[in-house]
Amino acid sequence: MPNLTHISKLLSKILRHQPDLIHIQLDENGWVEVSILLQNLAKYQTSISFEQLKEVVDTNNKKRFSFNDDFSKIRANQGHSIEVDLALQTQIPPAILYHGTVEKNLTSIFEKGLSKMNRQHVHLSADAETAQKVGMRHGKPIILKIESKKMYDKGYVFYLSENHVWLIDSVPSEFIHL
Ligand code: HQG
């Protein structure tokens, strides 16, 4: 019986990056029918119940997934590498947002700015502590401060995901500070 973390990681992989893994397709907004997801998970990966799926959605530490209103569909809230339209709302950012990274990326980041790399957006955090955790996934974390309000005032568009990750297309180096 897979544990909740295992299910969450598998769902992230399928709903953000590789629906092909269990032969499902996401719609243009990133949703898939829960019944099809559970059926194909059982067929190609591991069998989980609707109750387990709901527990993962409800208890996930980063609120990575959402159901629609009648629980018939599910999607990842952000972090996709495949192209989906999350119909995100634009938002006015706070004065400063944070980005966690590692030293080996710094030369390139200060040369070219922050790019979305394999994802659909650059991910920024509202607090330094969260950025530290994001950076730690890649090694010893370095926290960059982003002058988000200044960017907003210059016309850059910011989005806030369902689970409170700030998203943007790119951040030019002039707005990035150590
Ligand atoms: C770096 C997790 C060189 C960037 C987290 C990062 C987040 C550059 C890496 C979410 C660069 C990309 C995303 C440039 C950016 N030159 N390196 N020009 N521009 N980078 O994993 O932000 O747990 O795709 O600094 O909490 O680390 O999956 O992005 O180090 O919200 O839900 O390129 O993933 O969420 O790495 O993390 P990633 P990220 P989950």
From TrEMBL:
Q: What is its EC number?
A: 2.7.1.-
Q: Keywords assigned by UniProt? A: NAD, Transferase
InterPro entries tied to this protein: Ptrans_KptA/Tpt1 (IPR002745), RNA_2'-PTrans_C (IPR042081), RNA_2'-PTrans_KptA (IPR022928), RNA_2'-PTrans_N (IPR042080)
Q: Give the domain of life.
A: Bacteria
- Transferase keyword on record: yes
Q: Does the entry feature the keyword rRNA-binding, yes or no?
A: no
Gene Ontology molecular function = transferase activity
What is the enzyme's class at the highest EC level? transferase
What Pfam families does this protein map onto?
Answer: PTS_2-RNA
Query: What function is annotated for this protein?
Result: Removes the 2'-phosphate from RNA via an intermediate in which the phosphate is ADP-ribosylated by NAD followed by a presumed transesterification to release the RNA and generate ADP-ribose 1''-2''-cyclic phosphate (APPR>P). May function as an ADP-ribosylase.
Q: Which family does it belong to?
A: Belongs to the KptA/TPT1 family.
Q: What is this protein called?
A: Probable RNA 2'-phosphotransferase
The gene name reads kptA
